[in-house]
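thought: fold this chain, then report.
action: predict
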Amino acid sequence: MITFLALHGLDLFTTGLGLLYIYLEYRASIALWLVGIIMPALDVWLYWQHGLYGDAGMAVYYTLAAMYGYAVWKFGRKRGQHTNGQLPITHMPKQLYLPAALFFIAAWGVTYYILVRFTDSNVPLLDAFTNALSFVGLWTLARKYVQQWLFWIVVDVVCTVLYIYKGIPFKAGLYALYVIIAILGWKKWQQMAADQQNFP
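observation:
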């Protein structure tokens, strides 16, 4: 038991935090950002131990981005929003799709180059892919766009396979569950966006 915890204790603990995070995200609770600061800080160590250097670097970004996300949800405003209202859930404006796609491609390329050039990662293409798409996903989450769930579905599917391959079973199981919750979250946020539009 002690040996098992030594090998998988951090994986188990961050998995528990991940379940709490996705539940709070599904509920569109601002508390998700508080968990979002603690969990990735611990993930830096976990991923680094397993040679997922891109994910380790991404976890550092997640920690900082969670602070940004909290500030945006707490104090941010969208066009047409009431001054004292909470940041509403909306659909991502169509004019942002092309810039987001170009940013994703650039981020994928840069991350891939860094992994190949400066690390011994044996999964640089997929590691870079999930990191680049996560940049986009986290930004759309911070802006409370419904489409953030679509980005996370793709990230979660790829991460599930990647973590099984890299021997992080509990984290892999968590991301498999994320896929299901992201599909449900996509439907729930669509309804919440419609409700907010009908009752501003």
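thought: worth noting. The chain has two domains: 1-77, 88-199.
final: tokens above.
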